[in-house]
Amino acid sequence: MILNRNAMGLLLTSLMFGLVGCASGGSAIEASQHTSTTYHSGGWNLVWRDEFDAPDIDVTRWEFEVNCFGGGNAEQQCYTDRADNAFVRNGILNIVAKSERYSGPALQDDDANYDASDKSKTLPYTSARLRTAKKGDWQYGRFEIRAKLPQGQGTWPAIWMLPTDWVYGDWAASGEIDIMEAVNLKARSDREGAGADALESRVYGTLHYGRNWPENVYSGQGYRLPNDLNPADDFHTYAIEWQAGEIRWYVDKVHYATQRSSGWYSQYMHDGQLITGDNDAPFNQVFHLILNLAVGGAWAGNVNDTGIDGRVFPQAMLIDYVRVYQCSISPATGVGCGAIDESAPVVEGHQTPNLNGNADDF
Predict the structure, then answer these.
(1) DSSP-H helix ranges across 209-343
(2) Quick check: is 73 in a domain?
């Protein structure tokens, strides 16, 4: 879920998301190539969880974002804190996107000029976005979420992480970790080689990093479930294992992608000079979790059948649980507890550019 903290120009953002839609972390791998992990260390200690067993959303764990900002990439939903858009039922968190005109703040919640009473922007859909910032913040660990995803052209569910303190500056120099994203599930697939009747079924795991927008970069990997299963039909478990210098992605315990600090970087302004962060920056700081369901936007709206199919709404992302684990072997680094399939693809990423280099050369 690419985030714009500075009201990006929509044209440039659309171009950026056009690239993401075609290759948000590369083409989806064949699930049959990676059907089980080959190494299990164990040693994970559960340190934070929400099983959604209470009758209401636990506001000691989650904060609602309330705005019609549009994510900086022309998403068409207002995020609300209404029970219409987020509620717990039968032990399941429901995040619901609805077709309805709604007015709210034009700025995102952490903007210095944000006004919760502002009704200056109106959009045709509503949804919800929940975050754990200042309520659940972690450096390294295993993050595991069991979810059933929405379907239809224009749906964009995301389970992801942002830095809590933005140590290296604005997006994306301080990083973003996308545990799971999907767009337009069950719409016509635009995957290369897919048959005419094939339906969209890919999920993606992606990192965003580099410099502040627009000199940012991203890298990641797509994945399809075995036996042509679709993530919109049932619950599946999405996870990352994040340790110093390495992040791994999993679906239903299948390790399908790895990224390492040799393929990411952060460059940011310090005392008036552009400098390069430590070897594993920006993914060496504290991050928090975000759950949201966007509608449309420059990625979902520009791929598959394009646009938004209003007939499919309401749609919901269903969350069974969220669990966070710490590695007991080395809590300070997260190293030593991984479930690792050595044949899982290692995403190449991007090399650190020369500080005198032009962003166009990245």
Answers:
(1) 297-300
(2) no
